[in-house]
Amino acid sequence: MDLSTVYMSMNLRNPLIVGSCGLTGKPEKVKACADAGAGAVVLKSIFEEQIESELGKMTSSGDWYPEAADYINSYGMHNAVSNYLKLLEASRELVDIPVIPSIHCFGKGDWVRFARNLESAGASALELNTFILPSDPRRTGRENEEIILDIVSDIKSQIGIPVAVKIGSYFSSVSSFVRELDESGVDGIVLFNRFVRMNFDIENLKVINGSLLSSPDETEKVLRWVSLLSPVTQGDIASTTGIHDGSAIVKHLLAGADAVQLSSVLYKKGLGVMSEMLGFLADWMGKHNYNSIQDFQGRLSQKRSNNPAEFERVQFMKTSVKA
Fold first, then answer.
1. What is the 3-state composition of the chain as percent helix, strand, coil, each rounded to the nearest 5?
2. Which residue of 26, 82, 142, 162 pairs with 125 in a disulfide if CB–CB is 3.0 to 4.6 A?
3. pLDDT tens digits along 107-133
4. pTM above 0.90?
């Protein structure tokens, strides 16, 4: 049974990619992911603020994007750039699967020069983890989109390795924005980023973290958009969020994804769950007489559906009303 796939011109032994998280933040952890069966790994993100700090462009914590503040205060910014390059180089020495660094970015700046260093250090590709919280009422959604498009343009002009953009779903028109990203020349799009959630502690009257890990039902929204977008994008698509078992992998491949990213399930069940998920995929393929992923990839995308309208239904329909 051939479980291999191609993602951004990289040959993967299987479609499972360990997404950017604490499980990919050290070389030995990257090796553990590879030993457990991962087809590729995305390194834990380095933040734009860390890079800019070492370039002498930032002088105080007041310049930091809020999402990065806790991370930077906890781990520091000293030698962050050199340490990240060492993480990449050491990981490449330990594994024979693609290693993809990740930059959490939200604006243009001199930090884009760092992408060249990552390429020189042996990065298989680069993932841009982009998000601009649309909380400023004076800035339009279009302005936020243009910032991300400018970032992509700058990065693509700097390096020759494949570039993926990881986005959230908070756009007025997801399909239109993905089309623009596709036309900008990105090699892959990761759908969808799961952002840090917030909650309230009503006894101590303070803000606390919401649910840190995804749940299986969260993948349903992703599944719809992969089904809609996979037939109309030139670049590859990686699904992420809520992929917790082998059946979810099958569903996203049927929707047209080229690969899937995992993280929450690995925290919940351990790295060994990847072999179980791959076993399910192989068994399902055998049961349905498929010899390779390409034999069924995209079979349930909107374009190949006998009822395309099903993919755009967003409201419940009443089929009967009791008197």
1. 45, 15, 40
2. 162
3. 776 677 889 999 999 999 999 998 777
4. no
Comparing C-alpha atoms, which of 174, 193, 188 is closest to residue 312? Answer: 174
The C-alpha atoms of residue 1 and residue 282 are separated, in whole angstroms, by: 7
Q: Name all domains of the chain by residue range, CATH numbers in brackets.
A: 5-312 (3.20.20.70)
Asked if the model's pLDDT at residue 6 lies above 50, the reply is yes
**Residue 207 confidence (pLDDT) above 90:** yes
Is the distance from CB of 40 to CB of 99 less than 8 angstroms? yes
- Residues near 25 by Cβ (< 8 Å), separated by ≥ 6? 43, 44, 87
CB atoms within 10 A of CB 165: 27
Give CA–CA dist 258/269, Å, rounded: 24
Which residues on adjacent β-strands are paired with residue 103?
A: 46, 128
Place of tokens 């399930």: 265
Residues 6+ apart with CB under 8 A from 241: 192, 193, 194, 214, 218, 219, 222
Do the bridges between strand 206-209 and strand 198-201 make them parallel or antiparallel, or are there none, so unpaired?
antiparallel
If you write DSSP's letter for every residue of 256-321 in order, what string do you get?
Answer: T-SEEEE-HHHHHH-TTHHHHHHHHHHHHHHHTT-SBGGGTTTTTSGGG-S-GGGGG--S---S--
